[in-house]
């Protein structure tokens, strides 16, 4: 991926990125991010939801959560990295590179959604800002998508 993105940089090299920016971007975690995955995970634990796995290695696209019984995959997308139209942005430094990177991420997300659906899985995606502003709604959406039969309904205390 990095090689493909280099064509969007002057001379094919990363330049003009200060040490502080480099350190900040390097500290961004792909998993267990406090504002995304961990927030939804803790809400599901508090709600008593079970039957899910974190980052199952056998599912394409590295979903954040997988409910095997109901064939549901859940992704929590960071607004910056996945190009949220509401609050994502392109940095001014190396804007061509970042624009290409984020556009590529969005295209990959669409391809992965199609692939997962062809495999018979249901896909649910949330934006980082959805979890910050409407955690309860996100939790209800996961719960309703994950409930498929009476046994699971009884397990989660639903009639």
**H and E order:** HHHEEEHEHHH
Oligomer: single chain
> How many β-strand runs?
4
Strand content: 5-15%
Helix run count: 7
Count of structural domains: 1
Question: Can you tell me the CATH class?
Answer: Alpha Beta
Strand order of the largest sheet: 1-2-3-4
As for the CATH topology, it is: Endonuclease, Chain A
**Overall pLDDT metric:** 81
Global geometry: globular
Ranges where pLDDT stays below 50 over 5 or more residues in a row are 149-159
Q: How far do the termini sit from each other?
A: 48 Å
Name the helicity range.
40-55%
Shape-level CATH architecture = 3-Layer(aba) Sandwich
Global Rg: 18 Å
The CATH homologous superfamily is termed: VSR Endonuclease
Largest sheet: 4 strands, mixed
Structural class: alpha+beta
Structure summary:
This protein is 44% helix and 11% strand. It is of the alpha+beta class.
What's the helix and strand layout?
Layout: H1 2-5, H2 19-26, H3 37-46, E1 52-54, E2 65-67, E3 72-77, H4 95-118, E4 122-127, H5 128-133, H6 135-146, H7 150-155
Parallel strand pairs: 3-4
Antiparallel strand pairs: 1-2, 2-3
Helix pairs in contact: 3-6
Describe the structure.
There is one protein chain. This protein is α+β, with helices and mostly antiparallel strands. It is built from seven helices and four strands, in the order H-H-H-E-E-E-H-E-H-H-H. The protein has a four-stranded mixed beta sheet with strand order 1-2-3-4, sandwiched between helices. Helix 4 (95-118) links the parallel strand 3 and strand 4.
């Amino acid at each position: 991926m990095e090689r493909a993105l280099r064509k969007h940089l002057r001379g094919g090299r990363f330049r003009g990125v200060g040490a502080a920016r480099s350190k900040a971007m390097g500290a961004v975690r792909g998993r267990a991010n406090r504002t995304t995955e961990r927030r939804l995970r803790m809400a599901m634990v508090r709600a008593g939801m079970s039957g899910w796995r974190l980052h199952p290695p056998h599912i394409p696209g590295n979903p954040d959560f997988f409910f095997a019984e109901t064939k549901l995959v859940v992704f929590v997308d960071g607004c910056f990295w996945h190009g949220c139209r509401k609050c994502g942005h392109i940095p001014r430094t190396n804007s061509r590179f970042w624009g290409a990177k984020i556009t590529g991420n969005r295209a990959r997300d669409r391809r992965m959604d199609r692939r997962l659906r062809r495999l018979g899985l249901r896909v649910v995606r949330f934006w980082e800002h959805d979890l910050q502003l409407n955690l309860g709604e996100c939790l209800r959406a996961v719960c309703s998508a994950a409930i498929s039969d009476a046994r699971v309904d009884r397990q989660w205390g639903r009639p």
